[in-house]
Structures are given as structure tokens and as C-alpha cells.
Design brief:
Low-confidence stretches: 5-9, 141-152, 398-407
Number of helices: 21
CATH topology of the largest domain: Rossmann fold
Radius of gyration: 26 Å
CATH superfamily of the largest domain: P-loop containing nucleotide triphosphate hydrolases
Structural class: alpha/beta
CATH class of the largest domain: Alpha Beta
Strand order of the largest sheet: 2-1-3-6-7
Shape: globular
Strand content: 5-15%
Mean pLDDT: 85
Distance between the termini: 88 Å
Length: 462
């Protein structure tokens, strides 16, 4: 092959910018990239990196955090601002988790800790090179995922849901942990699935875990797996959630329900990117992106001492806030049409104008999930495929009627009153047996205990 053809082939390779002041690190990265069929341009300072960025386009930038003339964060911010199509990953000193979090918050794609593990380096490079170009990840508004919230959860034209779709497209291009906040039924798991579907991890598993549904004594073995003979009943080796999600996304729903002892172990797994099975003496590397969610205000749990602040800051690197249905009421007619079309693909029932107006005025404490339940009930009760106002069974609800909102109450006061009343009724029916009341309400014991304390029900119950 001629020299011209060799040079041309090199130019066609994806190019990676390596920024590190240590020559041996640059050589290691250069050699690793070459073996992966990639070409590297190396810089030893922030100034050199800036000059190279002006001259060429790169498929990835790998930068050290500490450089002779500045910080790697400066390069991260520059690339995110002016070269948005280039993912940038940072290399931090061992144990410098604060630097890693700061880089991720500034827009870094991912991070590696020194000494650099070659298997983690190759995984990171492959993920970054396979990343779709900005704006082409996917359109979350067109997604048709099935789930308890309905296929039309992200359907709508409101500014609130448009901002969520835009944020999901951005989050899909990162490896940073994401914390999804929002009320029950607002579509937190659907948002997590969309991040997965739009990301370079889309061909790897998406593993959802309800943290409030796992008995505390089984949590470590469920999350990290176990070795044969580790405890009574461990008849063979078994992988945990982390191993099952390797290469993909681990979705921790209701993460605030994790006990403090498990929070410590989860924090270590996230920081070290390694897990140790119960009964094993060695740690195994795992490549997992963490997405978490809870309907509670996680910061309030930190302030109350029920959630570790260091874990909170590792999980809440980027927050995605899911809007309530009350915040996007203009989307209700479109959502109704979408949900009914999914429920009845052949011939969907029609709503009277009066019924639609009532749906548009309703407060939806349960958000889209509640809207779906209302429609399922109404279509079961209606006659001749026509849903009337009475079929909705909303007439006695204070959220609709003469237009006065909750008889002068704030929305939080109204929702707290309804929640408190439901819990008191469940406790009364079960003779104040909290375990039985939690089962009756369809929540975990820990969740019920938290609600009882928050609403001050213990005093009332006594």
C-alpha cells in the first residue's frame, strides 16, 4: 500500500484528542486508541488543547483534570460550549470523586480514575465513539413505550413536556448519573427508559429495581449477587442487579426507601465501579449507568437524616424534573386521545364536551397514571361507546365544580389532607396494624412509616 493511501486511511479514522501532562499516560492512551483503530492527537497543556480544537474535529476528548497551565474543567466547559458534538471524558486522581462529579455537572460524558484500567478505558471509548450526533439521538415525543403510565406520557405540546423531551435527548449523550424527581404517576420510569433507548447503551439491558419492595436482609445479595454457599439456601452462584445491568442502565426507583446500611454499599459500588458478591473475596468491575427516582423530595430526606448526603450528591449529578399533569393541563385532550387509542385500537369511545371539560379541570393527584385509570373506569361504565360526565365519577371531587380551587386550600394542603385521610382509614380498618395498612394501601412499610411521620398521624392515632 502506498504512503498516500496509508495517510488517507489514517485521516479517515475517528480522531481522539488526548490531553495529559504525563508522557507515559499519553503513550498508553495513544497505543490503546491505535489498537482500537483510532488516531490520537496529544496535548500536554490547556493551551495546546485549545489550539488543536480550533484546527480539527474530534470524536472524543480525554483530558486529565490537573494540567500545568489550568484545570481539565476548563477544557470540559470549552468543548461543551463550542464543540458540542464532541464528547469529553476526564481522568481524575484516585479517590477524587468531587472532581469527577464537578466534571459531570459541567457536561463531561464520563470519567476514569487513575491508575487507568484498560478495560474501563476501552468501554468508555467505544461508548463515546458510538454516540449519535447531537440532535439525532431520538425524539422522545414519538416514543411508544408500554408501561403503567401509558404510551402517551410524553405526548403533548406544553412547554413543560417539551423541556423534558429536550433534556432527555441531552442526558442520553452522557454517562452521568441522573436523578428523576416528580410525583407518583408522572412518568419517571418512562423517562428513564427513554434515556436508555436514546443512548449508546440502548443495546444493553435496562434493569428497573423498586428499592422499596426488597426486604432489607436480602438487599445486598439482590444488588450484588452471591457465591454458592454464602448463606443457607445459596445453592449456586447468582448475579445481582449490577451484573444484570452490566453495559446498560440500572434504574433505582424509590431510591429514598433504601436503608442507610445499603446506601453505604451502593455509594462504594458507584464510586469504584466494582461490586463484591456476598461470600466472595474479590471485587468485580461493572459498567453500569445509574438512573434513580423517587416521588419524595430527596433533599428533605437528607435533611431528615434518612438519606446520606454523599450518596445524594453522587446520584443527583443531573436532575430531570417530571412535571405534574396540573402543570401541563393543555396536554390533557391529546393525552386522552392517545390513551384511548392505545386502549381501544380498533374503535375508541368518544367523550362528550362536558366530560372533556371536567377532565381538563381535574387536579390529578395521581397524574397521568390517574388519568389512565379514570379513562379505564369510565369506558367500562359508559354506554354505546360514549363517555358522559357521570361515567368519570368526578362530580363530588372538590377539584372540579364551580372553579374554586380546593375551597381556598393550597394544592399541597389538599393533597396532604387526602393522603392523611386515606392513611387514617386504612389504619382504622386494620386496628392500627401498620404492616396490614401498608398492604391495604399498596405501599411499602417504610413508605407508610415515612408518610405517617411526615403527616403527624402518630399523635392523632394515639
Amino acid at each position: 500500500m502506498s504512503t498516500d493511501k496509508i495517510d488517507r486511511k489514517r485521516e479517515e479514522r475517528p480522531r481522539v484528542l488526548v490531553v495529559d501532562d504525563e508522557e507515559d499516560i499519553r503513550e498508553l492512551l495513544d497505543l490503546t486508541l491505535a489498537r482500537m483503530g483510532l488516531s490520537a492527537d496529544c496535548a500536554g497543556t490547556v493551551a495546546e488543547a485549545k489550539q488543536m480544537l480550533k484546527k480539527g474535529r474530534y470524536s472524543l476528548c480525554l483530558t486529565d483534570m490537573r494540567l500545568p497551565d489550568g484545570e481539565g474543567l476548563e477544557i470540559v466547559r470549552l468543548i461543551c460550549a463550542d464543540y458540542g458534538e464532541t464528547p469529553v471524558a476526564v481522568i481524575t486522581a484516585f479517590g477524587s470523586t468531587d472532581n469527577a462529579v464537578a466534571a459531570l455537572k459541567s457536561g463531561a460524558f464520563d470519567y476514569l480514575a487513575k491508575p487507568v484500567a484498560l478495560n474501563q478505558l476501552r468501554t468508555l471509548i467505544k461508548s463515546a465513539i458510538n454516540l449519535p450526533q447531537a440532535g439525532t439521538t431520538c425524539d422522545a415525543s414519538k416514543d411508544k413505550l408500554a408501561g403503567s403510565n401509558g404510551a402517551g406520557q410524553l405526548t403533548g405540546n406544553s412547554p413543560a413536556i417539551a423541556a423534558v423531551r429536550e433534556m432527555i435527548d441531552k442526558l442520553a449523550r452522557s454517562q452521568a448519573p441522573v436523578y428523576i424527581s416528580g410525583e407518583s404517576g408522572s412518568g419517571k420510569e418512562l423517562a428513564a427508559r427513554l434515556i436508555h433507548r436514546c443512548s449508546p447503551r440502548r443495546t444493553a439491558p435496562f434493569i428497573p429495581v423498586n428499592c422499596g419492595a426488597i426486604p432489607e436482609n436480602l438487599m445486598e445479595s439482590e444488588f450484588f449477587g452471591y457465591r454458592k454457599g454464602a448463606f443457607t439456601g445459596a445453592e449456586s452462584d447468582r448475579d445481582g442487579f449490577f451484573q444484570a445491568a452490566n453495559g446498560g442502565i440500572l434504574f433505582l426507583d424509590e431510591v429514598a426507601d433504601l436503608p442507610l446500611t445499603m446506601q453505604v454499599k451502593l455509594l462504594r459500588a458507584i464510586q469504584e465501579k466494582k461490586v463484591r458478591k456476598v461470600g466472595s473475596a474479590v471485587e468485580e468491575p461493572v459498567d453500569v449507568r445509574i438512573v434513580s427516582a423517587t416521588h419524595r423530595l430527596l433533599k428533605d430526606c437528607v435533611d431528615a437524616g434518612t438519606f446520606r448526603s454523599d450518596l445524594y450528591y453522587r446520584l443527583n449529578v443531573i436532575e430531570l424534573k417530571m412535571p405534574t399533569l396540573r402543570e401541563r393541563q393543555e396536554d390533557i385532550p391529546i393525552l386522552v386521545e392517545s390513551l384511548l387509542s392505545r386502549m381501544y385500537p380498533d374503535k375508541r369511545p368518544e367523550l362528550t364536551e362536558e366530560a372533556m371539560r371536567a377532565l381538563c379541570r381535574y387536579a390529578y393527584p395521581g397524574n397521568v397514571r390517574e388519568l389512565e385509570n379514570i379513562l379505564e373506569r369510565a369506558t367500562a361504565l359508559c354506554r354505546d361507546g360514549r363517555v358522559e360526565l357521570d361515567d368519570l365519577q368526578l362530580a363530588n371531587d372538590p377539584a372540579i365544580g364551580n372553579g374554586e380551587s380546593f375551597s381556598g386550600e393550597t394544592l399541597d394542603d389538599y393533597l396532604n389532607r387526602v393522603e392523611k385521610q386515606s392513611i387514617l382509614e386504612a389504619l382504622a380498618k386494620t386496628g392500627f396494624n401498620r404492616t396490614a395498612a401498608a398492604r391495604l394501601l399498596g405501599v411499602t412499610f417504610r413508605s407508610l412509616r415515612y408518610r405517617i411521620e411526615r403527616l403527624g398521624i402518630e399523635e392523632d392515632a394515639g
